[in-house]
Amino acid sequence: MSEKETVHLVCKRNKEEARQLAKKIMELYGKERAIFFDEETSKALGYGESFEIEKVGEGAGLVVVLGGDGTLLSVARYVKDKDVPILGVNLGGLGFLTEVSVDELFPAMDRVLRGDYAVSKRMMLDVTVRREGEEIFRFSVLNDAVITKEALARIIDIETYVDDEYLGTYMADGLILSTATGSTGYALAAGGPILYPSLKNIVVAPICPHMLTMRPIVLPEDASLKAVLLSKDERVILTLDGQVGFSLESGDEVVVRRSPFTVSLIKSFSKNYFEVLRTKLKWGER
User: Which of 153, 167, 242, 247 could cross-link 160 (Cys pair, CB 3.0–4.6 Å)?
Assistant: First the structure.
């Protein structure tokens, strides 16, 4: 079978419902398509070809994620350079990233496998950490990069620059650097704006700032944001997409800019983005 006829299935870890859906997909489409499971799912079901999660999307024409937004975020960082569409299926409530419900799964699969679908191209951010002028860490995120203190630490000071021009010094519990995709997550909880997902801006949102005048700001797509940790003797963590952590030291520079990579998410067939917003945020309810 050709690469376009190969499907990679990724299930939420330890989620039996996801595994049973994966099994059903194999039964319905396995004779027409080469279907591979992630290693954990393949082992749990006791059959099926498998792939290492780091190689998801490699040689595939479609990736199906059965779980939630967190599972999809973990997959996104591995498919960023493979230009393969992702069908996200939410096993709980409606997701911002996993827009397809379980009830919609098989009609959606039929259409996708016929090539009858549209994708939403989502911008990613490249995040690097420099220490004493040397790059020591690099990562790409779909949602956000968050600089935050540990629970018992004091307020931290973060000096910020946009294209080497001084923006300001945030005295806060932390700082969120978000994509449009991530604008409905942690950044929204911190008072940031909602950006339409196709936008390529960067949201800078402080977490519980010491000065109420320190408000979120939206930067243009070609901006480079540098955040310098000034605080000493505080435990500070850089968290990527809520899943990967990196310890920062005083003087470290976190540089965030638009990534050359994008993630292609297959759009819902039954609802548009504004319907998702209204449902998730319960707009209009009393």
Answer: 167
69 is catalytic: yes
Q: How confident is the model at residue 271 (pLDDT cuts 50, 70, 90)?
A: confident
> In 10 A of CB 11, how many CB atoms?
28
CA nearest 274: which of 221, 218, 190, 197?
197
SS3 90: strand
Assess contact for 182 and 194: CB atoms under 8 A: no
Candidates 69, 144, 173, 241; catalytic one:
69
Q: What is the mean pLDDT of residues 253-275?
A: 94
The residues, any chain, with a CB within 8 Å of residue 176's CB and separated by 6 or more, are 144, 145, 146, 186, 187, 190, 192, 203, 204, 205, 206, 207
3-state secondary structure of 45: helix
Q: What is the DSSP letter of 151?
A: T
Chain position carrying tokens 């999307």: 57
Per-chain mean pLDDT for the chain: 93
pLDDT tens figures, 122-149:
999 999 999 999 999 999 999 999 999 9
Sorted by where each starts, the structural domains of the chain and their CATH numbers stand as 3-118+267-281 (3.40.50.10330), 124-260 (2.60.200.30)
pTM for this structure?
0.92
Spatial separation of the C-alpha atoms in residues 179 and 132, rounded to whole Å: 27
Burial of residue 72, with CB atoms counted within 10 A of its CB: 0-12 exposed, 13-18 middle, 19 or more buried: buried
Helical segments of 171-260, H only = 186-189
132 Cβ neighbours under 8 A, 6+ residues apart: 251
Supply the pLDDT for residue 1.
43
